[in-house]
Structure formats: structure tokens, C-alpha cells
Amino acid sequence: MVAYPGEPLNILHTIGLKELYPIIRVHFCVAGSFDEARFEDALMKCAQVAPEIFCKYVLADNSFVPVVDDLEGVVYQNLDPDIDISRWDLFMDPQIRVYLNHHGEEADVTIFLSHILTDGAGAKQLLQLLATAYNTRTVEGIVNHQDIDWLRKLLAEHQVEVKKETDHPAKPLTMPKLTSNKEQQTRRTHRLTLSKKLTAQLIKTSHKTGVTINDLLMAAYGQAVQRFSATDQISLACPTDMRKFIPGPEELRVANHTSRYNISVYSDVQQPFAQAVRAVHDAMVANKQSFQCLASVKTLVDNYDRYSLAKLQQICEDNYHVRTISYTNFGIVDFAFAGCQISDFDMLGSYRRAPMFQVAVSTYEAQLIFAFAMIGTAEEERVGNVVMLTMKDLLEKYVLEFSEN
Asked: pTM for this structure?
């Protein structure tokens, strides 16, 4: 039987499965001359380059084994993705699942990817591969790379210190528990898209104040959640794409190449938001200078060939555990289908059962997009929306403050 071996970082998202199913959700609407047959052919071509997407994941030996050779069990028509996705089993089914629905002349596309197979950056690259296959009708010469030789070298060059408390903060952020009846909770997604004007203003202001857009977003998210949390700390894990550390030209890497920076900074919501931004910025600068992100994967990579799977999963729990309140920034997403117009884009992480919560940020067509995927009640969804609206309000005030100086 054919099997494709996994790499150490595939194991990162096999922990805490009862709390969090490891998936990435991409959604968009397509208008114009969208050709579904051409789209499905493009999916088949993607499987030629990254055959693991048509495989089940075998936890026992960290491998991917083919289960389909066509789109049966991959593409579904006229089903609600947020309801039907509960049937998806990464250990029995393909690592990709696509839902095609129609609203008038628009096609509504939802793509789910296994987070065991790939991270957010890899998901973006797969989207680009899908668009390339659709637009050019070929993937000839494109090769997917999953090796981590570059990471082993990086770990040897930077002797980072691994501390369990770094990933297990003493004062974590929390959200209120509004119900104890899980039967009332359903899968929900919510999106808030910032205007192009505000997005451009944020970029300009970040340059003016010497911080990154990500610093601003983390501070805004942290303070928004603090309004529901009895803590004076913003403690967040910030996933980071390690592909930027790989020397040479950029390659297709549908794989897990993500580690994370961990910050815990003092934040008083009664004081100017700019102080929280500066604290987050300073913490991130220090982390980047010390390559702190490598600490989250060092023990796993160093011991992959020596320890049992159970031990490796415990290492992941110690250094990369599922946080109740989490944050991710997928960065800029760039793809398009020839002759089509794409709207209503969002990119999300896994559905988190409230009071667990995550805001996922992405940028598409020069607009910042905040979104969350939740298992919760209508009331819990409203609270999640309040968090995103509070983020927007804090960012607007930051822009206004520094535009007046």
C-alpha cells in the first residue's frame, strides 16, 4: 500500500482533539464565468502535486494513506458546510473537503483543509495552486516540498531555551461561560470586513508609529477580550510561518511549517490603547530577536526519531497546547480565477466551542477581515461579534489619535 510519510510538525495538531478538531476553513463567493467542471479538474491537478490531500491520516506512524483517486468524498453540492462538516473524519477521509452551493448566479465555495496536513500559509499556497491549475489548466513542473532539514539546521544555529510556563501563562485571557447546555450550541461563523480606507489608514499609521499591523491587531484583540476577562495581562500565542527562514527562492510547501511566539504583557484597559500596542510590539521584537518561536517546536523536532508517539504528543501539549483564547493572522491572501470576481472572502481556524474563542485575521483585496468559527449559541455569537467590533473601535481611535499629531 502506498503511504506518504509525515514530518514531525504534523503531530502538533493531533493533540486536544476533543477540544478542537484541526481544520482550516476558507470561504468565498464567485461571480462571473465560473466553470465548475474546470474547478473540479483543478482540484484533481492539485492532488497530483500534493497527493496527501486525497489521503487519510494515520496517527500510529504519522503517515498519509490514499483513500480516493477522484472527487468522490471530496466535493459536495448543495449542503450546509457548517452542518455537514461534523461528518468529516481526518483519520478515515481525504484531507480536503469542498462544498459548492449557489446563490442566484453566484457560486458559494467553502474549502476545508486538514490542519494536521498543512498550516495556514500552506493552505494559502494550496489556494494559489488551485487558481494556477484553474487558470492555466496545468501544474506541470510544480513540486511540493515538506522536508524540515532547514529547520533542524536553524535549531542547531539558535540555542533557544524551552520553558513550559512560556506556553502556559499564569494569567490567561478568558471569555465568559454563558451556557452549560452543549445541545444549544451550533456551528457558526461570523465575519467583519474593514473598509479599504481604514485598512490603508492602519498601514500608514503603523509605519508612522513604528509598529507592525500584527502588533496593532494583537493588542486590539487582547484588550477586547480583557473586557470580559479578570486579568491585567495580554497573554497570547502568535503563530508564525517559518518558511521565511528557508534560504533560497520560495517553494510550494503545503505542509506544517508553523511555530509560535508567546507574549504576556501588562495591559490596563483604563490607560491609552497605544501603551498596550507598544508593550506588545516590544515583546514581539524581543521574541523575534531571540528566535523564541523555535522553542515551541524544538523538543518535538529534536526527539522525533527517539520517542514514542504518546511522548511526542505530550511534548506538543507542553509547548504548543490548545489555548482557550487564541489568535491567528493568516496575512495577505492572493488568488483569483480567470474571468471571475471573488467576494465575501474569509479564512478561519477550527470551530471553537464557547467559551473558547479565536479571531482569525486575513487580508484580501486590500481589506482586513476579522472572523471566527464557533460552536455556540446566538448569544455567544453576539459576544464574539462584540469582540471584533471592539477591536475595530480601538483601531479606529488609534488611527485618529496619530493622524492628529
From this structure: 0.95
